[in-house]
Amino acid sequence: MDDVRDRIEEVLALPGSDPEVADAARAFLRGDATPLGAAAVAHAAVVLSRHHRWDDESPFAHAWTAEHGLPFAAAAFAELGGITADATFVLDGWQWEGVRRRHADETRGGWWLKEADARWLRARLAAAPDGVYAEAVERLAERRGHDLQKLVAAYLAPTRADWVEAVCANPAPVAADHCSERWLLFCALGAPHQPAAVGLPLGYGDRSLGVLLTLVDGVGPEAATPLIIEALDHQHGGGYSAGAAEEVLGELPVDDAFRALVDRIDGAGVPPVLREAVRRFPDRALRLLPETGAARAADLLAAHVRMVPELAESLLPDLDADARRTVRELLDARTGRPDATDLPPLLAEPPWTRPRTATKPVVIGTCPRPAPGRWPGRPANARSGRRGRPSRTGGRPRTRPPSGPPRTSRPGICRPAISRCSSKRRTSSCGRSSRGGSPTRGAPTSGCRSRSAGSGPTPPTPPCPPPAAIRPPSPRSCCRCCPTTSRGRWRTGSSA
């Protein structure tokens, strides 16, 4: 809002702005907060900053609640329904007339009347202390001049039954086709007779899960079922997705809701919801599934009888004649495990069905037991007495021959070794080829070339000695194939 403060002053100064609304908005900008001024500034700031095109949640209700309290936020939200920003978008931008009061026929909410914003404010009011809620209801009672404000007040304070009855008696403001504000009315209903008194169907924007559950909670499952069934038929007939109507019908403990799903079992999205409803209400499924002649319903009933045969037997006396006969046939058709008298013994009684006797382990008494802490062919660790560490690539322990030349796959080939003096693990090779003494192309011809601290430049690596002259590296050597006594010079002798 700070980015468009100057432009808000210009809009308030236009001739089309209502003087009372403009004065309240200027006072709000100066720091004298009033609900009317907050609503006027919000209308102007949203259009100037193009916030009305965003799908995100509006920050105004949160800001008003945090800065001025919940009753102030509820009053400011109701004031949004009494004024509007009179601006028309043309090719080169917005053409402003000002911020003024709403006309009687202007019942569209606009950017501020989103379900998420209104639900957030209503939830805070429902959880507020009694004193805070009473103050909010008192402020709402002072702002019910416009029909849209009456609808907002009835939604935010559904405990005022007189406000809800007044809206039900005059639903004309939301009676237009594709009205986007009708969900406020359905969420405000709180008595079973009110849906019939309103006489309006659930619109396209009124079929979300939150609206349907609030409607069921307010008027009860019996009164809400006809509206939800009508919405389901309208969605399927118009080619729309079923949305949340099927899901809500599958959870209602009403025979009409279950029967509606059974009659529409071939509809898109109905079979999985009906299967969940069968698991949730098994006795209702046994009573209502036999009433239809659909193939899917018959298959679902047969599977259900196989799952709960005891329940089906107990409910047979309570079913009507046709349903009892159908369930009885399904129970008689059940087959258990076949008799295995004529099968071979191996198939009649498989080995895993017979108890098994424990096998006595074979113990060789003449085998000597190795000494503790030592492996065969492996001396114990001199420091800790632990056994050799297993290899990373196999189960055998990593051992080092006590003496003799290192093992190589072929004579004349030196095994690549890992430098011990470098900070990085590098592989150095003497570069001898497998066919003779000529170096391999591209092989390094110098030493380990360490860059660690304390190591200086090293002279080129001498030719690899014959296999017989190779000795195990000394503890201070850099390379397995070129033993040294220090990092500063090479030693070409045969002793380490």
Layout: helices, strands, pairs:
Blueprint: H1 5-12, H2 19-30, H3 35-48, H4 60-68, H5 70-80, E1 83-90, E2 93-101, H6 115-127, H7 130-141, H8 147-156, H9 161-169, H10 182-188, H11 194-198, H12 209-219, H13 221-238, H14 245-251, H15 255-263, H16 270-280, H17 282-288, H18 295-307, H19 309-315, H20 321-332, H21 345-348, E3 417-418, E4 427-428
Antiparallel strand pairs: 1-2, 3-4
Helix pairs in contact: 1-3, 2-3, 3-5, 4-5, 5-7, 5-8, 8-9, 8-10, 10-12, 12-13, 13-14, 14-16, 16-17
Characterise this structure.
- This protein is mainly α and 496 residues long.
- It folds into four domains: 1-157, no CATH class; 174-276, no CATH class; 281-331, no CATH class; 415-432 and 444-496, no CATH class.
- The protein is 42% helix and 4% strand.
- It has helices at residues 5-12, 19-30, 35-48, 60-68, 70-80, 115-127, 130-141, 147-156, 161-169, 182-188, 194-198, 209-219, 221-238, 245-251, 255-263, 270-280, 282-288, 295-307, 309-315, 321-332, 345-348, and strands at residues 83-90, 93-101, 417-418, 427-428.
- The chain has a two-stranded antiparallel sheet. Strands 3-4 form a two-stranded antiparallel ribbon.
- Helix 5 runs antiparallel to helix 8 and helix 13 packs antiparallel against helix 14 (245-251).
- It is elongated.
- Mean pLDDT is 78; it is low at 236-242, 408-455 and 479-496.
